[in-house]
Amino acid sequence: MFIYDKSLHMTARALALSVTTIRKAQKKNDAREFLVGTPDWQAAMEAFGHDVMTALAGNATNMVAEHDLISRIARQE
């Protein structure tokens, strides 16, 4: 059974658009510039995936830091 989560889809789309925009500003290759399956396309897809993972890791790090701060404040009260 397939369950469509519109909120998750929109979040993923926003992340992809953000990473694509940042990559464009950094003058990095876009996979859409190459034929599917070519070595250049593969390299661009891998680089995009790496940048998405970097964005997610940065967000996760910030979330952990915020959680730790909130936990410290709660313990002081």
Fraction of residues in H or I helices: over 70%
Weakly predicted, low-confidence segments: none
Strand content: under 5%
Number of helices: 2
**Shape, principal axes of CA atoms:** elongated
**Largest sheet, described in full?**
none
Give the overall average pLDDT.
85
Distance between the first and last residues' Cα: 46 Å
Helix-strand makeup class: mainly alpha
Following the backbone from N to C, one meets helices and strands in this order, namely: HH
Number-wise, the strands total: 0
Tell me the Rg in angstroms.
18 Å
Number of domains: 1
Please, could you describe this protein's structure?
The chain is 75% helix and 0% strand. It is mainly alpha-helical. The chain has one domain (6-74). α1 packs across α2 (39-76). The longest helix has 38 residues, at 39-76. The model has no long low-confidence stretch (mean pLDDT 85).
Short key terms for the protein model shown above:
single chain, 77 residues, mainly alpha, 2 helices, elongated
In short:
With 77 residues, the protein is an all-alpha fold. 75% of the residues lie in helices and 0% in strands.
Write the layout of secondary structure elements.
Blueprint: H1 6-25, H2 39-76
